[in-house]
Amino acid sequence: MFVLSGLIQSTQIYAVIYLINFETMKKPVIFILTCFAILNCNILNAQNAGTTGAVQQNQMQGMPKDMKPPATDVSAIKNKYLDIPYANLSEVQKLDIYLPTEISGKLPVIVSVHGGAFMMGDKRDGQVKPMLEGIKRGYAVVSVNYRMSGEALFPANINDIKAAIRWIRANASKYNFDPDRIAIWGGSAGGNLSSLAGTSGDVKELEDLSLGNATFSSRVQAVVDWFGPTNFLKMDEHLRETGNGTPDHCAADSPESKVLGAKITEIPELVKKANPETYITSDDPPFFIEHGTKDGIVPTQQSTEFYQKLVKVLSPDNVSIQLLEGAGHGGPQFEEPANIDLVFTFLDKQLLKK
Known about the structure:
Layout: H1 2-11, H2 28-39, H3 49-59, E1 80-85, E2 94-98, E3 107-113, H4 129-132, E4 140-144, H5 156-170, H6 172-175, E5 177-187, H7 189-200, E6 222-226, H8 235-242, H9 255-260, H10 268-273, E7 287-292, H11 301-313, E8 319-324, H12 332-335, H13 337-352
Parallel strand pairs: 3-4, 3-5, 5-6, 6-7, 7-8
Antiparallel strand pairs: 1-2, 2-4
Helix pairs in contact: 5-7
């Protein structure tokens, strides 16, 4: 079991496998074998992690919709509220709330946004684990589910994220949230949505106020973006430049094309609307960006170019980027204690010392 799980982690199978916390899985062997059968991939013949992950993102599209990575064990967290609806248009519009055991005063909030190629993932899967460190440090953590591409096309996903943020503000007094101190943190597709929430502020065309709490703002005060895509149309170009992965994001069946509803090369204006760079303004919140230099799924240049555009508009003190040498699309380097400390140093500066 240890060998198999380590092998799968090393190949970074996109959108599902890298999310798994193998140490807390109840039935790891069953899940691994199921994934092997569905993906129909020969991991032992992989030549490098980035390339294998990129090839498999298209294979993942055949995975059953009801298949989820194992849930994170949150039984030890006593102060929590699970599966709370923040809207009622879809069954998936729910969030989980995790609070410190002892609360004194209003709590800054971390909104956790899962990744999964815009078509899978869950608010309680392994991706939430780094964010849950926040409850030990005086934060409330709110992990959000949103509509996937198989259910609704963009901008439904960002509509949902913004609706969840409005819900948090509307219910601040009930859960001891500080409505003026909200950060958002996500990886991969969740990084895209977190960045989009950060730069778009109260951009009306990305809000669906019919989802509730229309009088509240969806702005956030800080953004942590882990390896999120920005300009979908440049991803293949970037992958060719680095030699990492397979440049297939412009395909009609790519995750990006699926979430936008058409081949991305045929809908450049819609691609622009899904790009966080489109909405950068001087009143955007501070950003902390991290990306692996060997990412074969979302090329590193997606973050470096996003950083360059942000820093031209925002103060250099409010935008920082860390490139994790040798890291792929997620993986253990992101979750090492020293790196988590870096993230919380940023969040503490923005939210705890106000």
